[in-house]
Amino acid sequence: MTNAVILQELRALMKELNVDAFIVASEDAHQSEYVCDADNRRAFVSGFTGSAGTALVLQEKALLWTDGRYYLQAENELSSDWTLMKAGMPGVPDINEWLANNLSSGQRVGIDSWLISAASAAATAKALAAKNIDFVAVAENPVDKVWAAHGRPPYPQNPIEVLGLERSGKPHEEKIDEIVAQLRAADAVAVVVTMLDEIAWLLNIRGSDVEYNPVVISYAVVTTEDVVFFVDESKVTAEARQHFGSRVAIQPYQAIEGFLIEKAQTGKISVDSSKVNWRLRIAVGESLVEKISPITLPKSLKNEAETRGFINSHIRDGVALTAFIHWLENHVRANPGTFTEYDVAVKIEEFRGRMDGHVGPSFSTIAGYGPNGAIIHYKPEKDTALALGVDSMFLLDSGAQYRDGTTDVTRTMHFGTPTQRMKDCYTAVLKGHIALSTMVIPEGTLGSRIDSAARMALWKLGLDYNHGTGHGVGSYLNVHEGPQGIGFRSRPNEAGFQAGMTISNEPGYYENGAFGIRIENILICREVNTPNRFNDRKYLGFDNLTVVPIKTNLINVDQLDEAELQYLNDYHRHVRGVLLPLMQSTFPESVDYLVQATEQLTRA
């Protein structure tokens, strides 16, 4: 089955539905970044497997939009039937602009209303209406019909995992009570919760329905009396029923639409249109009250138990990753050209699998040697992966789910002798990484206001990178979470930093056809004591959760100032101190390597 055949069959169904263009987005009915195999429609239609992108199919054209993380990957994966639209590049219109400028008055654009947020649907409808182009919800998704004939995988039916109080730090009943109080204060009868990580956090459950994300495919509606949990009942174990108690009523997953139509007759329903899909927004009708999800912010503020889990899981992860890098360096130097990027992604799981509480990866491992390192979210495939050698740089971005925390760490290394160009670029990235780590900011500062700190050293060289600098991380949940983030663009509903938020710190540089560099740690935001408190504001700093040595053979030490050098040495002193005891008991063969990798750096 070729991509051309899929497009041909899809276009025939589009004619039957009387739509001139059909949008196939990446998301599922819950606006998830990662989706289960049965919901991976855009990848099926286009062949592009990156986690972000939108496909547009017309009778004579097929286009795919994706961001800077995936330009090179998309170029490699898309067939000649597709045109790549590099979102964010000068002169490249977004999908709404393209449709408005290329379709004629009276033409129709179709989409599955379950698979687009209400806010995005409204924006698209408005943009197209200005040109008298109709935006319509199709009765049946034509992609699903085509896919069914070619072996679409079934939806998962995995059991729910109960998250005990020792890990959640707060009973689900208390979380529910806080939301109920907000509903009553707003004179609303319910709030719709569709994001899978928000449901998992609210009910203190986890699952395995979506690869990398420990979530359960479900919906929840919090009313002024209880929570209605819409889920495949085969997933609800006896333990889960006992855990839910009388506060959680279970209904079939498909019953959500009918429930909301009925509930809307009784009063106002709170909806976050940036998260709830268009179909459910229609079900709520005139009873809608537009409000940001009441779960997004509390979920991002890690409590004492969650913080403790983050610290402990990162120590275990740091031991496993450091031991793996030790093994990898020895193996590649002794046997260059025999161990591939794909082998790295497999082998690293062996090391992490020896750690207590390990569940699996938190995302698909990015392991790029040489030119593949310049593909920001490169995923090595068995048949095409490059073999690692000693002549170029190797970028390794990986993470794990542990039952008490989620990790995400990137280290860039060179197993031979790096060039001066490589060292100059690496040192600039490191300087940006340190600048962000050491910032002190007023509480409430937006991440978009501090992004430039991570880029300044690169800018001085005329360099930059095409991705954001930081994302929040869930507590044994999704590796990407909001509402906080660090990037050069402000985001809708972006929240300023508060103590307890996690954030990644991952500046980089990518030289097409040559190498890629990224250094990533996970930080946690904490209140700091300052000599003054202007306007009686609190001030915040960042602590490193990630404890993995930073490669020093790529650093131009003379390009670091005294404060940067001191930071690096202090960080390595901390890494050695927290990793050494567990390293001695789990990977004793890597103890000497840990000591060597964390030696104090001095000027020549």
The biggest beta sheet reads: 6 strands, mixed
Structural class: alpha+beta
Poorly predicted regions: none
How far the N terminus sits from the C terminus, by CA atoms, comes to 60 Å
Average pLDDT level: 96
Please explain how this structure is put together.
The N and C termini lie far apart (60 Å). Helix 14 (304-334) crosses helix 15 and helix 14 crosses helix 18 (562-586). It is globular, with a radius of gyration of 25 Å. The protein has a six-stranded mixed β-sheet, with helices on both faces. It is built from 19 helices and 28 strands. It has 604 residues and is an alpha+beta fold. Strand 18 (400-402) and strand 19 (405-406) form a beta hairpin. The longest helix is centred in the middle third of the chain and has 31 residues, at 304-334.
For this entry, give a set of tags.
globular; 34% helix; six-stranded mixed β-sheet; 604 residues; alpha+beta; single chain
Summarize the structure.
The chain has 604 residues and is an alpha+beta fold. Helices cover 34% and strands 20% of the residues.
Please describe the topology of this protein.
Elements: H1 3-17, E1 21-25, H2 41-46, E2 54-58, E3 62-66, H3 71-77, E4 83-86, H4 95-102, E5 108-111, H5 118-129, E6 134-137, H6 142-148, E7 161-162, H7 165-168, H8 172-185, E8 188-193, H9 196-203, E9 205-206, E10 219-223, E11 227-230, H10 238-244, E12 248-251, H11 256-263, E13 268-271, H12 278-284, E14 288-290, H13 296-300, H14 304-334, H15 341-352, E15 358-361, E16 366-369, E17 393-398, E18 400-402, E19 405-406, E20 409-414, H16 420-437, E21 441-442, H17 456-459, E22 470-472, E23 481-486, E24 502-505, E25 508-511, E26 515-518, E27 521-528, E28 539-544, H18 562-586, H19 591-597
Parallel strand pairs: 1-5, 3-4, 5-6, 8-13, 11-12, 13-14
Antiparallel strand pairs: 1-2, 2-3, 7-9, 8-10, 10-11, 15-18, 16-17, 17-20, 18-19, 21-28, 22-23, 24-27, 25-26, 27-28
